[in-house]
Amino acid sequence: MEKIKVAIIGTGSISNFHALAYKKLPNVEIIAACDINKERAEEFAQKYDIKHVFTDYNEMLKMEEIDAVSVTTWNNVHAPASIAALKAGKNVLCEKPLALNRKEAEEMVKVAKETGKLLMVGFVRRFGENTKALKHMIDAGELGEIYYAKTGCLRRWGNPGGWFSDKKRSGGGPVIDLGVHMIDLVRYLSGKPKVTSVTASTFNKVGIKPEIKGVTKYYSKDYDTFNDVEDCATALIKFDNGMTLFFETSWVQNIKKDSLYLELYGDKAGAQMEPTLEIYEDKNGYLSNLEPMIDPESYSFGHNFDEEINHFVDCVSSGTECLNPAEDGVELMKILDAIYESAASGHEVIVK
Ligand SMILES: NC(=O)c1ccc[n+]([C@@H]2O[C@H](COP(=O)([O-])OP(=O)(O)OC[C@H]3O[C@@H](n4cnc5c(N)ncnc54)[C@H](O)[C@@H]3O)[C@@H](O)[C@H]2O)c1
């Protein structure tokens, strides 16, 4: 069996989930890894038994044997690295967000079309078993017309610092880091409507809070406390199918505890996907709540990545239609750009 040969650009935290998932597939071999931090790339290569190590992805991409690449760098490198990989004839799985903004994301899609290579965006939560179950029910018409949705991902103290809080490298704070997943899920579940308008506020009030005792948080690799991104944001987002989404997110906010929620309201039934999957419907003349059983074992970050990477490899090896085409990443960047633009201007932004 001819193996799919994979390379990884950016060997920080999330690249481990990509590597672990690739390693589980018998038809895949990770042959190269690249990071601007040489020591980190070498350590990663040793851990996953990867032969070739680079500090410059352009050099790595000269390797003809590479079929596919995972781009798991800081957000500002997603577009240049993906474009270079596509132009070198590689298929690309690029982490979320697809790019820093809509313009970059559109350029990536253009290059993917020109080269005929696959560009998949890493909306990994689409591969969660709760997402799959709810999508299945929605596609079967269980909710009817979805006209309103609410989603939020709030942290009390969760600014990862380092590149995450440096706008030049991240593009923004919790909106582009956490919001991108939640807004994508709402679009994905409700049939991928297109955004028409956004009214938003962002706040930079509480800061990075580096000195809290008694609790642990995720620190980015190469941590520092530079911070010029938003702490929290709220937005009202309207779509061309008539649906309105209320969205909020924070990294740092004076709330009781962290929370994650996603709710969709249809004219036949309502659904909550986070924190638990529940359906609210009328059955036999009663208001009824349904709680579909999902194997708790499958509720993990690792499981979602395994499913995502499996799908990417399937698309590359068998030409399976991609569930996460880069065009969906562009649609998300349109919304995120509009959130930041509306917050800066104080006005509603009409999106075309
Ligand atoms: N899908 C998810 O749920 C999820 C979760 C976390 C992070 N992410 C995304 O994954 C990406 C990486 O996040 P992370 O938490 O692993 O960050 P990280 O800081 O741990 O790792 C990023 C790595 O990229 C390297 N890098 C930067 N510029 C580079 C370049 N030009 N060439 C090669 N390597 C370069 C850095 O040195 C670092 O080692 C981000 O885009 C983030 O949004 C996705």
Structural overview:
This protein has helices spanning 15-23, 38-47, 57-60, 75-87, 102-115, 129-139, 167-170, 174-189, 301-318, 326-345, and strands at 4-9, 28-34, 52-54, 68-71, 91-95, 119-122, 146-154, 195-203, 232-239, 244-250, 259-266, 270-274, 278-283, 286-290, 349-350. With 352 residues, the chain is an alpha/beta fold. The protein folds into 2 domains: 4-124 and 304-323, 3-Layer(aba) Sandwich (Rossmann fold); 126-298 and 332-350, Dihydrodipicolinate Reductase, domain 2 (2-Layer Sandwich). The strands form 2 sheets. The chain has a 9-stranded mixed β-sheet, with helices on one face. Strands 3-2-1-4-5-6 form a 6-stranded parallel β-sheet, sandwiched between helices. Helix 4 (75-87) packs parallel to helix 5 and helix 8 (174-189) packs across helix 10. It is globular and about 60 Å long. The model has no long low-confidence stretch (mean pLDDT 97). Bound molecules: nicotinamide-adenine-dinucleotide.
